[in-house]
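User: Fold this; tokens only.

Assistant: Input:
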Amino acid sequence: MRRGIALVQFCYLEKGSIMRKYFLLSLAGVFLLFGCNSSKPTETKTASADTSVAYRPTSTIKDIMDSMVDPSADYIWDAVSTEISAKGINEKFPRTPKEWQEIRRKAITLIEATNLLIMPGRKVAQPGEKSENPGIELSPEEINAILDKDRATFVTHAMTLNDEAMKILKAIDAKDKDAILDGGAGIDEACESCHKIYWYPNEGKDRGNVPAPSIRDTDKEKEKSGK
């Protein structure tokens, strides 16, 4: 009789253990399912938030050229030079860590400015702005018309400048002053090839065989005139 009671108790305990196991497994499954379902809205919300971010191109192409491209390119051009005079040869190039840091900042600014130039929705100039030299320089409306007709070419020119500026950055990181000097010519050529299409395509037509001045020459003339 006792053996029978013990057997019944054993079966009852065994059954209870199995029930508890099933209960715990089921409870774990509920938590796992709840956790997965609760994470999905968050992921969807994050993804939708990322895609909903819109650019705010407040500044114009002219603003970026004036505040970022021109000053950065001028700094790089002036940072390395060789002057020969009666006193001898004077080499100018960054020497201190601070000077190397500053020219690197200008290179970074120039590189990223090319990305800002091609940002969708950016206008050439503010409404009502006019060209400084009508008849030679295109008006903002004329430049906009060219960009609207063939934006791919403008992007190509901007990325060419990006490539040349990247070469300068690598030369700066290597502290190779000769490569910086050579790279300055690449920046000048990239700027000039773009300006001949979008800024002053008519310049030089009445100059015979005399080439139009480069952006470096134009900037130097502006410095002398105080503009």
